[in-house]
Amino acid sequence: MGDLTDKELKNLKPRAKLYKVTDRDGMHAAVTPTGVISFRYQYRVNGRQETLTIGRYSGEAARKLTRALDALEYGMEVSLAEARTLLARARRQVERGESPSRAKVEKRTASAEAFTFGGWAEAYFKHKADPKSGAEKLADSTLAMRRSVYDRAIAGEFSKLKLGEVTPHRLKRLCDEVKEKRGPAVAVHVREVVLLVFRHAQGCGLDVSNPAGSIRTSAIAAFEPRDRALSPSEVRAALAALDGPVRNSVCGRAVEQFQAMACVKRSP
Fold first, then answer.
1. Which neighbouring-strand residues pair with 43?
2. Exposed (0-12), middle (13-18) or buried (19+): which is 181, by Cβ within 10 Å?
3. Does 108 map to a domain?
4. Rg value, the chain, Cα
5. pLDDT tens profile 13-32
6. Do 92 and 24 fall within a single domain?
Protein backbone atom coordinates (compact mmCIF):
# COMPACT_ATOMS: atom_id res chain seq x y z
CA MET A 1 0.00 0.00 0.00
CA GLY A 2 1.33 3.48 -0.90
CA ASP A 3 1.39 6.68 1.11
CA LEU A 4 -1.85 7.64 2.83
CA THR A 5 -4.10 10.39 1.47
CA ASP A 6 -6.65 12.58 3.23
CA LYS A 7 -9.42 10.85 1.30
CA GLU A 8 -8.29 7.44 2.57
CA LEU A 9 -8.05 8.74 6.15
CA LYS A 10 -11.59 10.10 6.03
CA ASN A 11 -12.86 6.73 4.78
CA LEU A 12 -11.23 4.67 7.52
CA LYS A 13 -13.90 2.95 9.60
CA PRO A 14 -13.59 1.66 13.18
CA ARG A 15 -13.41 -2.07 13.83
CA ALA A 16 -13.85 -4.21 16.89
CA LYS A 17 -10.13 -3.88 17.66
CA LEU A 18 -7.52 -1.19 17.02
CA TYR A 19 -5.83 -1.53 13.64
CA LYS A 20 -3.01 0.24 11.81
CA VAL A 21 -2.62 1.63 8.31
CA THR A 22 0.96 2.25 7.16
CA ASP A 23 2.05 5.60 5.77
CA ARG A 24 5.78 6.30 5.33
CA ASP A 25 9.10 6.45 7.18
CA GLY A 26 7.88 4.44 10.16
CA MET A 27 4.63 6.37 10.66
CA HIS A 28 1.21 4.76 10.62
CA ALA A 29 -2.38 5.75 11.34
CA ALA A 30 -3.93 3.89 14.28
CA VAL A 31 -7.73 3.57 14.23
CA THR A 32 -9.40 2.83 17.59
CA PRO A 33 -12.76 1.04 18.01
CA THR A 34 -14.30 4.45 18.81
CA GLY A 35 -13.16 5.84 15.46
CA VAL A 36 -10.29 8.05 16.67
CA ILE A 37 -7.43 8.21 14.17
CA SER A 38 -3.97 9.06 15.50
CA PHE A 39 -0.58 9.20 13.83
CA ARG A 40 2.14 7.13 15.48
CA TYR A 41 5.84 6.76 14.78
CA GLN A 42 7.75 3.60 15.70
CA TYR A 43 11.52 3.84 15.99
CA ARG A 44 14.58 2.56 17.83
CA VAL A 45 16.85 4.86 19.85
CA ASN A 46 19.76 3.81 22.06
CA GLY A 47 18.75 0.18 21.64
CA ARG A 48 15.14 0.74 22.76
CA GLN A 49 11.97 0.29 20.70
CA GLU A 50 9.65 3.26 21.26
CA THR A 51 6.42 4.65 19.87
CA LEU A 52 5.59 8.34 19.62
CA THR A 53 2.00 9.52 19.24
CA ILE A 54 2.48 12.40 16.84
CA GLY A 55 -1.07 13.69 17.00
CA ARG A 56 -4.72 13.04 16.33
CA TYR A 57 -6.02 13.33 12.77
CA SER A 58 -8.41 16.23 12.25
CA GLY A 59 -10.47 16.66 9.10
CA GLU A 60 -10.93 20.30 10.00
CA ALA A 61 -7.17 20.85 10.19
CA ALA A 62 -6.87 19.19 6.78
CA ARG A 63 -9.14 21.88 5.28
CA LYS A 64 -6.97 24.71 6.59
CA LEU A 65 -3.56 25.98 5.57
CA THR A 66 -0.73 23.79 6.84
CA ARG A 67 0.87 25.35 9.92
CA ALA A 68 4.60 26.00 10.20
CA LEU A 69 6.72 23.61 12.26
CA ASP A 70 7.22 26.10 15.10
CA ALA A 71 3.43 26.22 15.58
CA LEU A 72 3.14 22.44 15.91
CA GLU A 73 3.59 20.20 18.94
CA TYR A 74 3.33 16.46 19.45
CA GLY A 75 -0.15 15.46 20.61
CA MET A 76 -2.07 18.20 18.78
CA GLU A 77 -4.92 17.72 16.34
CA VAL A 78 -3.18 17.80 12.98
CA SER A 79 -3.67 17.25 9.27
CA LEU A 80 -1.82 14.51 7.39
CA ALA A 81 0.67 17.07 6.02
CA GLU A 82 1.30 18.46 9.53
CA ALA A 83 1.80 14.95 10.91
CA ARG A 84 4.49 14.36 8.30
CA THR A 85 6.15 17.66 9.27
CA LEU A 86 6.26 16.51 12.90
CA LEU A 87 7.47 13.10 11.74
CA ALA A 88 10.46 14.78 10.07
CA ARG A 89 11.25 16.55 13.36
CA ALA A 90 11.03 13.27 15.29
CA ARG A 91 13.32 11.52 12.80
CA ARG A 92 15.95 14.24 13.22
CA GLN A 93 15.76 13.80 17.01
CA VAL A 94 16.28 10.05 16.66
CA GLU A 95 19.25 10.64 14.37
CA ARG A 96 20.81 12.74 17.16
CA GLY A 97 20.24 9.90 19.63
CA GLU A 98 17.36 11.72 21.34
CA SER A 99 14.02 10.15 22.25
CA PRO A 100 11.16 12.28 20.87
CA SER A 101 8.68 10.36 23.03
CA ARG A 102 10.64 11.08 26.22
CA ALA A 103 11.10 14.72 25.21
CA LYS A 104 7.33 14.98 24.76
CA VAL A 105 6.69 13.62 28.27
CA GLU A 106 9.29 15.89 29.84
CA LYS A 107 7.85 18.96 28.14
CA ARG A 108 4.31 18.03 29.22
CA THR A 109 5.48 17.47 32.79
CA ALA A 110 7.30 20.80 32.89
CA SER A 111 4.23 22.53 31.52
CA ALA A 112 2.00 20.80 34.08
CA GLU A 113 4.27 21.79 36.94
CA ALA A 114 4.05 25.41 35.81
CA PHE A 115 0.23 25.22 35.69
CA THR A 116 -1.49 27.40 38.26
CA PHE A 117 -4.22 26.18 40.60
CA GLY A 118 -6.69 28.11 38.46
CA GLY A 119 -5.50 26.27 35.37
CA TRP A 120 -5.90 22.90 37.06
CA ALA A 121 -9.33 23.90 38.36
CA GLU A 122 -10.46 24.71 34.81
CA ALA A 123 -9.02 21.41 33.60
CA TYR A 124 -10.93 19.60 36.38
CA PHE A 125 -14.24 21.26 35.53
CA LYS A 126 -13.75 20.62 31.81
CA HIS A 127 -13.01 16.95 32.45
CA LYS A 128 -16.02 16.52 34.72
CA ALA A 129 -18.34 18.16 32.17
CA ASP A 130 -17.08 16.12 29.20
CA PRO A 131 -19.38 13.23 28.16
CA LYS A 132 -16.24 11.39 27.05
CA SER A 133 -15.19 11.18 30.72
CA GLY A 134 -17.65 8.34 31.15
CA ALA A 135 -18.42 7.46 34.76
CA GLU A 136 -16.32 10.40 35.95
CA LYS A 137 -18.68 12.94 34.39
CA LEU A 138 -20.60 14.86 37.04
CA ALA A 139 -24.30 15.66 37.10
CA ASP A 140 -24.98 19.21 35.93
CA SER A 141 -26.28 20.24 39.37
CA THR A 142 -23.17 18.96 41.18
CA LEU A 143 -20.87 20.57 38.64
CA ALA A 144 -22.71 23.89 38.93
CA MET A 145 -22.50 23.81 42.73
CA ARG A 146 -18.76 23.14 42.74
CA ARG A 147 -18.15 25.75 40.05
CA SER A 148 -20.10 28.30 42.11
CA VAL A 149 -18.03 27.55 45.23
CA TYR A 150 -14.83 27.89 43.22
CA ASP A 151 -15.84 31.16 41.55
CA ARG A 152 -17.22 32.79 44.72
CA ALA A 153 -14.87 31.57 47.41
CA ILE A 154 -11.66 30.11 45.96
CA ALA A 155 -10.64 31.72 42.66
CA GLY A 156 -9.84 35.13 44.11
CA GLU A 157 -7.35 33.63 46.56
CA PHE A 158 -5.85 30.62 44.77
CA SER A 159 -6.32 30.91 40.98
CA LYS A 160 -2.92 32.53 40.31
CA LEU A 161 -0.95 30.37 42.73
CA LYS A 162 1.17 27.40 41.66
CA LEU A 163 -0.06 24.12 43.14
CA GLY A 164 2.93 23.96 45.48
CA GLU A 165 1.97 27.35 46.88
CA VAL A 166 -1.45 26.11 48.03
CA THR A 167 -0.35 24.84 51.43
CA PRO A 168 -2.47 23.29 54.22
CA HIS A 169 -1.99 26.47 56.27
CA ARG A 170 -3.19 28.65 53.40
CA LEU A 171 -6.20 26.43 52.75
CA LYS A 172 -7.20 26.29 56.43
CA ARG A 173 -7.00 30.06 56.66
CA LEU A 174 -9.23 30.42 53.60
CA CYS A 175 -11.74 27.93 55.01
CA ASP A 176 -11.87 29.87 58.28
CA GLU A 177 -12.46 33.14 56.42
CA VAL A 178 -15.19 31.58 54.29
CA LYS A 179 -16.80 30.07 57.37
CA GLU A 180 -16.94 33.51 58.97
CA LYS A 181 -18.35 35.24 55.88
CA ARG A 182 -20.47 32.58 54.18
CA GLY A 183 -21.11 29.89 56.76
CA PRO A 184 -19.67 26.49 57.68
CA ALA A 185 -21.29 24.54 54.82
CA VAL A 186 -19.59 26.65 52.16
CA ALA A 187 -16.26 26.37 53.99
CA VAL A 188 -16.51 22.58 53.92
CA HIS A 189 -17.26 22.72 50.19
CA VAL A 190 -14.15 24.87 49.68
CA ARG A 191 -12.00 22.12 51.16
CA GLU A 192 -13.75 19.52 49.01
CA VAL A 193 -13.23 21.43 45.74
CA VAL A 194 -9.53 21.98 46.50
CA LEU A 195 -9.20 18.28 47.39
CA LEU A 196 -10.76 17.24 44.06
CA VAL A 197 -8.71 19.64 41.93
CA PHE A 198 -5.48 18.28 43.45
CA ARG A 199 -6.66 14.70 42.94
CA HIS A 200 -7.29 15.51 39.28
CA ALA A 201 -3.76 16.90 38.93
CA GLN A 202 -2.33 13.81 40.63
CA GLY A 203 -4.37 11.59 38.32
CA CYS A 204 -2.75 13.38 35.36
CA GLY A 205 0.66 12.28 36.63
CA LEU A 206 1.69 15.31 38.66
CA ASP A 207 3.67 14.48 41.80
CA VAL A 208 2.26 17.01 44.25
CA SER A 209 1.02 16.88 47.84
CA ASN A 210 -2.70 17.46 48.39
CA PRO A 211 -3.10 20.13 51.09
CA ALA A 212 -6.74 19.24 51.73
CA GLY A 213 -5.66 15.79 52.86
CA SER A 214 -4.06 17.36 55.93
CA ILE A 215 -7.28 19.10 57.01
CA ARG A 216 -10.17 17.11 58.44
CA THR A 217 -13.69 18.29 57.72
CA SER A 218 -14.33 18.35 61.46
CA ALA A 219 -11.51 20.89 61.84
CA ILE A 220 -13.52 23.29 59.69
CA ALA A 221 -17.03 22.71 60.98
CA ALA A 222 -18.98 20.19 63.02
CA PHE A 223 -22.64 19.74 62.19
CA GLU A 224 -25.17 18.59 64.77
CA PRO A 225 -27.81 16.21 63.39
CA ARG A 226 -31.26 17.78 63.45
CA ASP A 227 -33.34 14.72 62.63
CA ARG A 228 -34.76 12.23 65.08
CA ALA A 229 -36.43 8.88 64.62
CA LEU A 230 -40.18 8.63 65.01
CA SER A 231 -41.41 6.51 67.88
CA PRO A 232 -43.45 3.37 67.08
CA SER A 233 -46.63 5.08 68.32
CA GLU A 234 -46.03 8.07 66.03
CA VAL A 235 -45.51 5.80 63.02
CA ARG A 236 -48.77 3.90 63.86
CA ALA A 237 -50.65 7.19 64.18
CA ALA A 238 -49.39 8.37 60.80
CA LEU A 239 -50.34 5.12 59.09
CA ALA A 240 -53.77 5.10 60.77
CA ALA A 241 -54.42 8.55 59.34
CA LEU A 242 -54.24 7.09 55.87
CA ASP A 243 -57.42 5.13 56.53
CA GLY A 244 -59.22 7.93 58.35
CA PRO A 245 -61.58 10.67 57.12
CA VAL A 246 -58.64 12.98 56.38
CA ARG A 247 -57.35 10.82 53.56
CA ASN A 248 -58.29 13.38 50.93
CA SER A 249 -57.44 16.40 53.03
CA VAL A 250 -54.21 18.40 52.94
CA CYS A 251 -53.12 16.62 56.10
CA GLY A 252 -53.83 13.23 54.57
CA ARG A 253 -51.84 14.03 51.49
CA ALA A 254 -48.95 15.20 53.67
CA VAL A 255 -49.00 11.87 55.49
CA GLU A 256 -48.91 10.03 52.17
CA GLN A 257 -45.91 12.09 51.13
CA PHE A 258 -44.25 11.25 54.43
CA GLN A 259 -44.89 7.58 53.83
CA ALA A 260 -43.34 7.73 50.40
CA MET A 261 -40.26 9.58 51.64
CA ALA A 262 -39.78 7.34 54.64
CA CYS A 263 -40.29 4.21 52.54
CA VAL A 264 -42.68 2.77 55.14
CA LYS A 265 -44.75 -0.18 53.94
CA ARG A 266 -48.20 -0.62 55.37
CA SER A 267 -49.07 -4.01 56.72
CA PRO A 268 -51.75 -5.88 54.73
1. 50
2. exposed
3. yes
4. 28
5. 999 999 999 999 999 999 99
6. yes
- Does one domain contain both 11 and 107? yes
Question: What count of other Cβ atoms lies within 10 Å of the Cβ of residue 149?
Answer: 23
Model pLDDT for residues 138-185, shown as the tens digit of each residue? 999 999 999 999 999 999 999 999 898 999 999 999 999 999 999 999
C-alpha span between 83 and 57 (Å, rounded): 8
DSSP code per residue over 228-251: -PPPHHHHHHHHHHTTSTTTTSHH
Question: For residue 254, what is the enclosing H or E element?
Answer: helix 250-262
What's residue 107's pLDDT?
Answer: 67
Does residue 225 belong to any structural domain of this protein? no
Q: How many helices (H) and strands (E) does the chain have?
A: 11, 5
pLDDT at position 254, please? 61
In a domain, 105, yes or no: yes
Domain range for residue 240? 232-262
pLDDT value of residue 175: 96
Same-domain check for residues 14 and 106: yes
Q: Give me the DSSP letters along 185-225.
A: HHHHHHHHHHHHHHHHHHHTT-----GGGGS-GGGT-----
Give the domain CATH number at 56: 3.30.160.390
Global confidence as pTM: 0.47
> If residue 41 lies in a helix (H) or strand (E), which one and from where to where?
strand 37-45
**What are the pLDDT digits (tens) for 176-221?**
999 999 999 999 999 999 999 999 999 988 888 999 999 999 999 8
| Residue 268 belongs to some domain of the structure | no
- The H-or-E segment that residue 127 falls in is helix 117-129
